[in-house]
Amino acid sequence: MAGGYYLALDIGGTKTSAALFTREGEIAGDVVLVVKSETFRGEEVVYQNIKTLLEDLMRRQGVASDTILGIGVGSPGPLDTKRGLIIHAPLMKWRNFPIIEHLTADFRFPALLDNDGNLGALAEQHRGVARGLRNIIYMTVSTGCGGGILINGELYRGANGGAGEVGHMSIDPGGIECPCGSRGCFELYASGTALLNNMKTDMAAGKRSAVFDLAGNDAEKLSGRYLDEAAARGDAYALALYRKEGYYLGVGLANLFNLFDPEMIVLGGGITKGRRFFHKTMMETLKERSEQPIHDNSVRYSEMNDRVVLHGAFFLIREYIEKTPS
Ligand SMILES: [Zn+2]
């Protein structure tokens, strides 16, 4: 077997991407292929899209499947990583989907699954802003809030593989009802979905803002992009909403610092694009509430953007293959 490559797959609610990695961890030819997940069409269609995507990638890169050492797969949770099941992905309407069984049956190379929070943590520790650190937390702030926790250099998965569900730590016991069954969950206040819901409610209540003008007063057109645009123009409503975002992020981060005393928490996900509008409030709130010393590098932002899960998936499978005696 000459050389040997790894595949990485990032299954998302709207799009799925894949890349071929060299053993050293570079994306071959800097090529990342992306397809629509088409989750609304059911799990068989989603899986066929994945299979075609991987076949296209290998064809385009000119590699045969017997030169692939393994594939790492990232997916939103909850997952059963030991059995390779996507237990339940609300966006995808999947129930106990045996993704790993499907992949190994079709491609005949080893496959491993983990959630995007854990993979983000691995990626940041190996080649990101937390490179070389041994106690870090990665938190993604997008549609929801996911997390991954590294303790003493190892991923902390918990007793059932469910650790790192930072989005569902409650920050208000009597707060908003969460689909998870709890109340006041962090992601109901700090995620992109929360920002969007706030904007929709405020627009319906007749508040004035450039955000609403930019969206043509159409609730369906409200977006993070318009919020950024309005904030950049100095719109008072947009800036206040971002301060609120910073406040809730600070509260959540303080809980995590108090519990885990990490060297760094790395933030990723779409909402971090608006960091210049929330960073100050976030750090002030964090400092007020943390028992641990907080400095400028205590919280940093991922620089891998859309590729963080792919890089993490690569490190996951490479570590497994290198540790497994052949
Ligand atoms: Zn919840």
Tell me the structural class: alpha/beta
Give start-end ranges of low-pLDDT stretches: none
Spatial ordering of strands, largest sheet: 3-2-1-4-8
CATH architecture term of the largest domain: 2-Layer Sandwich
Computed over alpha carbons, the radius of gyration is: 20 Å
% residues in beta strands: 15-25%
Range of helix content: 25-40%
| Outline type | globular
Can you list the ligands bound to this structure?
zinc ion
SSE pattern, N- to C-terminal: EEEHEEEEHEHEEEHHHHHEHEH
- For the record, the CATH class of the largest domain is Alpha Beta
Number of domains: 2
Mean pLDDT: 93
Quote the CATH topology of the largest domain.
Nucleotidyltransferase, domain 5
Helix segment tally: 10
Rounded to the nearest angstrom, the distance between the terminal CA atoms is 13 Å
Largest sheet: 5 strands, mixed
CATH superfamily of the largest domain: ATPase, nucleotide binding domain
List strands and helices in order, with pairings.
Blueprint: E1 5-11, E2 15-22, E3 27-36, H1 43-61, E4 68-75, E5 79-80, E6 85-89, E7 94-97, H2 99-107, E8 111-115, H3 116-127, E9 136-141, E10 145-151, E11 154-155, H4 187-190, H5 192-204, H6 210-214, H7 224-232, H8 236-260, E12 264-268, H9 275-289, E13 299-301, H10 308-323
Parallel strand pairs: 1-4, 4-8, 9-12, 12-13
Antiparallel strand pairs: 1-2, 2-3, 5-6, 6-7, 9-10, 10-11
Helix pairs in contact: 3-10, 7-8, 8-9
Bound molecules: zinc ion.
Zinc ion binds next to loops.
